[in-house]
TrEMBL record:
InterPro entries: GLPGLI (IPR005901)
Leader peptide range in chain numbering: 1-22
Keyword vocabulary terms for this entry: Signal
Official protein name in the record: GLPGLI family protein
Signal in keyword set: yes
Lineage: Bacteria, Pseudomonadati, Bacteroidota, Flavobacteriia, Flavobacteriales
Signal keyword on record: yes
Length: 279
């Protein structure tokens, strides 16, 4: 019985790899995103415990989104399906748009290029840059996700001196201006854990994750989690993987600087960003 199951597993794996190697191969993977909000801390007397819990719950719901990754052997497009959702006001909108974002992400492995179409408060940007480098550490640890055998890999994102200096500067400004409503955590090195399947041998994944010998099905960086819930290989109706074109063309560095300047404009006299809560 065990031998029969092993042979069946090998047959399915070989069949999947054969499909991927087909000339006109295409696949679609559906991902669900979540974010831990228990780490968000408040200080000062601006919000009651009930208001803080309400804010965390709204933020948590705003982070629960569905994305579809359409991919072939060298390119991919990661975007949300076209659905209507209720707007979320105040800081929740700001955090949500920067954390997961109503955006499109295009990756070209062959050209080592990433293009991200973002909308920030009604202004469209097209971020064009090189693919990020991931120093993956491969392991032999495995588990099952949706019938696929996945392998664990990790990468460490080290906090830069520039990020530490910027954090120190913000803290100094806050102490001079007054009490900060939301406590900003000190930047820490972040361990990213992903699970990928060699059964689908394409070097793709959700968001900007890539660079492994198989499709990435799960991502966890300690705060944010992305989990694949469905995979369709060679769907009957193929989708054209198009490069995003809308928005002002900027680099990642330029976009970050634009966002930082805009956030400064939104602050009140004490350096806090005003939070609006829907009743």
């Amino acid at each position: 019985m065990t031998k029969a199951i092993t042979l069946l597993t090998c047959f399915l794996m070989i069949s999947t790899i054969t499909i991927v190697k087909a000339q006109n191969f295409q696949g679609q993977a559906t991902y669900e995103t979540k974010r831990a909000v228990s780490d968000i801390q408040f200080q000062g007397g601006g919000m009651t415990p009930a208001m803080q819990d309400q804010f965390r719950e709204k933020l948590k719901k705003s982070m629960e989104k569905t994305f579809i990754l359409t991919f072939d052997k060298t390119t991919s497009l990661y975007e949300q399906p076209q659905v209507l959702s209720a707007p979320v006001s105040g800081l929740t909108t700001v955090v949500a748009s920067n954390a997961t974002g109503d955006e499109k992400q295009y990756k070209n492995i062959k050209d080592q290029k990433v293009m991200i179409e973002k909308d920030f408060f009604g202004k469209e940007f097209l971020i064009v840059d090189s693919l990020p480098h991931w120093d993956w550490k491969l392991t032999n640890e495995t588990k099952q996700i949706g019938g696929y055998t996945v392998y664990k890999a990790t990468a460490l994102i080290v906090v830069t001196e520039k990020e530490k200096a910027a954090y120190g500067k913000r803290q100094l400004e806050q102490s001079n201006k007054g009490t900060q409503m939301m406590q900003e955590p000190e930047p820490q090195d972040k361990l990213v854990t992903v699970w990928y399947t060699p059964d689908i041998p394409v070097s793709q994944g959700p968001e900007e994750y890539w660079g492994l010998p198989g499709l990435i099905l799960e991502v966890n960086d300690g705060n944010n989690m992305i989990l694949c819930s469905k995979i369709v290989l060679n769907p009957k109706e193929k989708t054209t993987i198009k490069m995003p074109k809308k928005g002002k063309v900027v680099s990642k560095k330029e976009y970050t600087e634009i966002i930082e300047k805009q956030m400064e404009k939104m602050k009140d006299g004490k350096g806090n960003i005003r939070i609006e809560m829907n009743k």
